[in-house]
């Protein structure tokens, strides 16, 4: 027996405080999202696993500078990249997570390795990277992840926190300058993610993040936490979350949505709308979720100006949206 299959991806929130996107940036974002979801859909169409599909889709987003994951990750207070990622498959409810990754280009692939080959569910920091090198992953210098606009973003945050005049020379690139370059939409937090249902009826979810700009060294966010940043359970729902990490953790957003579908018999859309409206409200709470139910129906719910998202539904229709009013 084969099941209908579908996939959805997100690239994190467009914050309410963001400047309008330039036409070039808008087009590039849509093209990257389309490439991401298409890569995953091709795997599903060929009979591949939902887990492989979500990992492949997220990898595309990690390789882009546009999103807060992988290549585009924000910098922490020590001017370094520290990345988190996780995957979950819905059949056996296996989870693989990595935290504090600094030298691996695609943490989402390493998260899958942890799930399949480590004998554990979560590895962090030096231990996670040692495991990666054992598995044949290449060491990547921090220079690979470093981008000028993320450094400028960090310097502005440090200046705002300390008000030190000595930082002024590092703040020459103003918000107006960033807007002209199409960079002012970069939030200080965010993640990327994917959810999928394959032809075997298996659900999977994946989430990857660079964390929060200027975060403390060693901070770990919701992206590695099953039930907060992601969740997948066959015959129920697969979810990937985006938004302020501490809120998603405290309110167990993905778990709450899944619980409402299971115990209240709510549809994934109704459950997602309820939880997001309850948790992501007020200033600095832009975010949302993408979800796929056991029938392959795709749902997205957001709070704020927008959520970068794309999907291919069970009819094979491609949809790409950036803003709340699309």
UniProtKB/TrEMBL annotation:
Zinc-finger among keywords: no
GO biological process: proteolysis
InterPro entries: Ntn_hydrolases_N, Peptidase_T2
One Gene Ontology molecular-function label: hydrolase activity, acting on carbon-nitrogen (but not peptide) bonds, in linear amides
Keyword Protease included in the entry's annotation: yes
Pfam families, alphabetized: Asparaginase_2
Origin: domain of life: Bacteria
UniProt-recorded name of the protein: Isoaspartyl peptidase
Organism, scientific name: Vibrio renipiscarius
Lineage of producing organism: Bacteria, Pseudomonadati, Pseudomonadota, Gammaproteobacteria, Vibrionales
């Amino acid at each position: 027996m084969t099941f209908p299959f579908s996939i959805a991806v997100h690239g994190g929130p467009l914050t309410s405080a963001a400047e309008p996107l330039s036409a070039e940036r808008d087009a590039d974002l849509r093209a990257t999202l389309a490439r991401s979801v298409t890569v995953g859909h091709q795997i599903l169409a060929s009979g591949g696993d939902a887990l492989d599909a979500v990992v492949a889709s997220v990898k595309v987003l990690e390789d882009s500078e546009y999103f807060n994951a992988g290549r585009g990750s924000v910098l922490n207070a020590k001017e370094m990249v520290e990345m988190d990622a996780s995957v979950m498959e819905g059949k056996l409810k296996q989870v693989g997570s990595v935290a504090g990754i600094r030298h691996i280009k695609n943490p989402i692939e390493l998260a899958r390795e942890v799930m399949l080959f480590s004998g554990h569910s979560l590895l962090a920091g030096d231990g996670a990277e040692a495991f990666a090198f054992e598995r044949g992953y290449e060491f990547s210098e921090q220079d690979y992840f470093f981008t000028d606009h993320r450094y400028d973003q960090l310097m502005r945050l440090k200046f705002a926190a300390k008000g030190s005049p000595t930082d002024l020379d590092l703040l020459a690139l103003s918000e107006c300058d960033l807007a002209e370059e199409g960079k002012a939409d970069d939030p200080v937090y965010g993640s990327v993610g994917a959810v999928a249902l394959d032809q075997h009826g298996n659900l999977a979810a994946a989430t990857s993040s660079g964390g929060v700009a200027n975060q403390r060294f060693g901070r770990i966010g919701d992206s590695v936490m099953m039930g907060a940043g992601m969740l997948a359970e066959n015959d129920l729902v697969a979810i990937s979350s985006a938004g302020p990490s501490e809120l998603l953790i405290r309110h167990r957003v993905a778990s709450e949505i899944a619980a409402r579908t299971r115990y209240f018999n709510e549809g994934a859309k109704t459950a997602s709308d309820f939880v997001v409206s309850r948790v992501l409200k007020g200033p600095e709470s832009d975010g949302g979720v993408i979800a796929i139910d056991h029938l392959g129906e795709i749902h997205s719910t957001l709070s704020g100006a927008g959520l970068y998202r794309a999907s291919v539904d069970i009819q094979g229709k491609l949809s790409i949206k950036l803003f709340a009013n699309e």
